[in-house]
Amino acid sequence: MKAHGIKFDETLHSILIATGVTDKIGIPILKKKKESRFLTTIYDRLEYDEAHRLHHMYCEAIDDLIEASNPIELGAIWSKTEIKDLIAPGTICFCMRGFRFQRGDTVENEEDRVIYAKAKNIEIRFSANTRHMFGSSALYDSFVGHRFIAALIIVKNVDTEDGVLVIRATPLAMGAGFVTSAYDTPYAMKTNRLKR
Fold first, then answer.
1. Domain parsing of the chain, residue ranges
2. Contact residues for 194 (Cβ-Cβ < 8 A; gap 6+)
3. Residue 135 contacts by C-beta under 8 Å, 6 or more apart in sequence?
4. Which long-range contacts (CB under 8 A, 24 or more apart) does 7-12 make?
5. Topology of the domain covering 71-175
6. How many CB atoms lie within 10 A of CB 28?
7. For the chain: N or C, fewer Cβ within 10 A?
8. What is the pLDDT of residues 72-96, one digit of tens each?
9. Which residues are paired to 143 by β-bridges?
10. Does 152 score more than 90 pLDDT?
11. What does the alpha-carbon distance between residue 4 and residue 67 come to, in Å, rounded to a whole number?
């Protein structure tokens, strides 16, 4: 965020600092976990209003980052040549398509998930942990199995693995429930129908 001049909303951030929800750079100060047999997130350790303020602050920062960075829309350049020419470590990219979520280890009610999409010998691959997700629908519906989602990522590496061009990334934001007809892009939207 700093590289793009993005800062958290000052008013909201100062409230979260004053109430002990975050530190000065926006990292949550987590309270003791509540006992649960279900998956939990950082937001579960906060009061309802604190959790929503924190989530809102992060969402606003992501919106500002999108406007400042002008992410590369991967669906518009889905060819090995274009990806090799345009994508490098540190590039911020956007992709709205079907992804697979592979569930991994669960430690202290937080689960690792490997997330990937593959077509035409090109693959996007990144990991997420449920501790950063917001809401039960994210934990148990939107980000499991095979789902159509939007992902904002920062590229870590682009390499070839057994003839497949692999874009390894870190997710900055993920979302579900978007209407693709409302997606405004200069490129034709390539929506993969999910087979159930």
1. 2-68, 71-175
2. 98, 146, 147, 148
3. 43
4. 7/61, 8/57, 8/60, 8/61, 9/57, 9/60, 9/61, 12/53, 12/56, 12/57, 12/60
5. OB fold (Dihydrolipoamide Acetyltransferase, E2P) (2.40.50)
6. 19
7. C
8. 999 888 999 999 999 999 999 999 9
9. none
10. yes
11. 10
